[in-house]
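Possible regression after last week's pipeline update?

I re-ran a chain I had predicted before the update to compare outputs. Posting the input and the new output here so someone can diff against the archived version. Not blocking, just want to make sure nothing changed silently.
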Amino acid sequence: MYEAEREELVEILQSKGIKDENVLRAIKKVERHKFVPETILFHAYLDKALPIGDNQTISQPYTVAFMTEALAIQKGDKVLEIGTGSGYQAAILLEMGCEVYSIERISNIYNRTLKLFDQMRLRAALRCSDGTIGWSDYAPYDKIIVTAAGPSVPNALKRQLKVGGKLVMPVGEKSSQSLVVLTKTGEDEFEAVSHPNFLFVPLIGHEGWEKK
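New output (post-update):
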């Protein structure tokens, strides 16, 4: 079901500069329509962010592909995801052979995605908690992906990243962010590359924005 739409989506992503064959293969395989509300199924394979309730969105496929490509995922990577949301990004990482730990702050979304993962037999460790403090029980991580935007990269997440690992996160004001890719080169040493013009929902938590 929707195979042609996924093929077309992959072609769109390639035309926008996504080159990682493993990322493209995962997007071709993972059924995005299972992660969006039934009322907007017909939009599932558009290259657009879509609402999933509770003022949250499922990210634009290009953004998912760009962030995943920036992480340089290797099969077997232990990945911490901050902001489970619909579960689509986690499903992409699982399809690529990662060991996934994912945190969602909003209980409604967490419960819905937990149920969906059970139905789809997707094996990820999910937790309902403040993502800005990470998940130290399973640290260090090879890769960390943050799917909400904060004023800066939380120190807790930096600490939980392996030396040699990569972290990708949107950073900036609530109205506009740059996607920052950090590579941990030493215990407290990082190299950063920044990609402008992204827009994400705000990262709420102890080391993020305050909840209003």
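Follow-up from reviewer: compared with the archived run. The first helix runs from residue 3 to 15. Marking as no regression found.
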